[in-house]
Amino acid sequence: MMTRHPSRRRAPLVTLAALLLAASACGPTADQRQEAAALGTQAAPERISSIQLTLMYSGFHPGQLDGAIGAGTRASIREFQNSVGLPVSGYLSDETRARFAELDRRAGPFSVRRMQEALRAAGFDPGRIDGVAGSRTFEALTRFQGAKGLPLTGWVNPATWSALKAHMEPSNSSQS
């Protein structure tokens, strides 16, 4: 019976530990630092919901407009970055936020709170007006789309946003 030398069994563990230590020393990427600086350590859910709404308007599906940057939002940010020729990181780099701001100036301002207020003004109850879209907001959005003869996607797209804007108060800023 052959026995293994004890140091040979530990070699893979030592290698793994060295790799993990090296990876942790790298720290956050520039895009991660830019996102953290822009959103702060405790990003406001309304700001993130507005980003999710901008992604949705642009044809990407970040999941619920829940004010949290989860896997669906990260994937949508990557898809958006790829579609406009930006470096793909999935983080809200300065360049990515500049593209969002450009869209916001051109077609927005994008705000879940404004969308909820517009739905209510149009006669569709989105639930609590809080800047974070829940199931009642999406149900109201789908009913609104049906009433306006729009495709029943339950998502905000340019046609739905345009129809909603007819029920929005004018806004001179992109505040939520």
Brief account:
The chain is mostly helical. It is built from 8 helices and no strands.
Q: What tags apply to this protein structure?
A:
176 residues, mainly alpha, Muramoyl-pentapeptide Carboxypeptidase, domain 1
Describe the structure.
Helices cover 58% and strands 0% of the residues. It folds into 2 domains: 31-107, Orthogonal Bundle (Muramoyl-pentapeptide Carboxypeptidase, domain 1); 112-165, no CATH class. The relative contact order is 0.12. The protein is built from 8 helices and no strands. The chain is elongated, with a radius of gyration of 22 Å. The protein is an all-alpha fold.
The number of helical segments is: 8
Biggest beta-sheet profile: none
Total DSSP E strands: 0
Question: Roughly how many Å is the radius of gyration?
Answer: 22 Å
Return residue spans where pLDDT drops below 50 for at least 5 consecutive residues.
Answer: none
Report mean pLDDT, rounded to a whole number.
Answer: 82
Backbone shape: elongated
Distance between the termini: 72 Å
What fraction, in percent, of the residue positions are helical?
55-70%
SSE pattern:
HHHHHHHH
* The top level CATH class name of the largest domain: Mainly Alpha
CATH domain topology of the largest domain: Muramoyl-pentapeptide Carboxypeptidase, domain 1
Roughly what fraction of the amino acids lie in strands?
A: under 5%
CATH architecture of the largest domain: Orthogonal Bundle
The assigned structural class equals mainly alpha
The tally of domains stands at 2
